[in-house]
Amino acid sequence: MPTQRISLFPLAGALLFPGMQLPLHIFEPRYRALVRDAMARDRRIGMIQPRGDAANAGSQNREPLLYNIGCVGHIGEFEALDDGRFNIILTGVARFKVVRELTVTTPFRQVEAEVESLAVHDDDILASVERAALEQESQRFAKMQGYVVDWDAVSRLDDASLVNGIAQIAPFDAASKQVLLEAPSLRERAERTIQLMQFFGRTDGDGQATLQ
After folding, report:
1. CB-CB neighbours of 210 under 10 Å
2. CB environment 127-145: b (16+ within 10 A), e (fewer)
3. CA distance 70 to 75
4. pLDDT digit of tens for each residue in the chain (212 aa)?
5. Could you give the CA distance from residue 88 to residue 84 in angstroms, rounded to a whole number?
6. Residue 212 to residue 69: CA distance in whole angstroms
7. Alpha-carbon torsion 121, 181, 94, 20, what sign?
8. Counting Cβ atoms within 10 Å, is residue 116 exposed (0-12), middle (13-18) or buried (19+)?
């Protein structure tokens, strides 16, 4: 698989899935430089999760280790503020797998990575029973969480938009969402999403969500 150079924004807790959107407020100097560079080239940024205690690594002047899988995002909406900060909205393009980190002079990190093909494969289409199971569990989970959802609109989504949309907005922790992002196929991601909704949707005797 051909590799590409990708500039990274390692941001704990901010995961991006293909086809989904992620609003970001950019204020740190090196990531302002990242956005300026992206806008001058292809408007693309690689979102990826730091692995482990990123804050502790930073305090020791060491860059945190990274997960191997992230998502390339395209800067769609862009707002430059008077004080040099930016507001942007990224749209997920495709997952990428880090091959190696590059030695660079830029203040932001860059990697050589394999970017996933955008072609639709058989594993990216849910069987009708799989789709029904996902929608049913989503309705149960949303009701338990107190969410108001337009289920008619949801039913019109294609499989990828449905699965990735749930993965993007569901109140799972970052580690769980990383597990979803790393799923090798859309069908596997749908299955893992159902498992997570069942896990996070458990309730105690007072009807409160619990992980116990």
Report:
1. 12
2. eeebbeebbebbeebbeee
3. 16
4. 789 999 999 999 999 999 999 999 999 999 999 999 999 999 999 999 999 765 455 445 678 999 999 999 999 999 999 999 999 999 999 999 999 999 999 999 999 999 998 877 777 899 999 999 999 999 999 999 899 999 999 999 999 999 999 999 999 999 999 999 999 999 999 999 999 999 887 654 344 443 33
5. 13
6. 29
7. positive
8. middle
- Is 0.70 surpassed by the pTM of this model? yes
CB 112 within 8 A of CB 4: yes
Q: What is the DSSP letter of 42?
A: T
- The pair of three-digit structure tokens given for residue 27, joined into one six-digit string: 């204020």
Q: Please give the sequence-ordered ranges of beta strands (E in DSSP) within 29-104, or none if there are none.
A: 44-48, 69-80, 86-101
Q: How far apart are CA 82 and CA 116, in angstroms?
A: 37
Strand partners, 75: 90
CB 90 within 8 A of CB 24: yes
Tokens encoding 111: 């990697």
Pairing of strands 86-101, 110-115: antiparallel
Give the Cα separation of 196 and 176 in Å (integer): 8
CB neighbourhood size of 200 (10 A): 18
Is residue 142 within 8 A of residue 37, CB to CB? The reply is: no
Tell me phi and psi for residue 151, to 5 degrees.
-70, -25
DSSP assigned state of 162? H
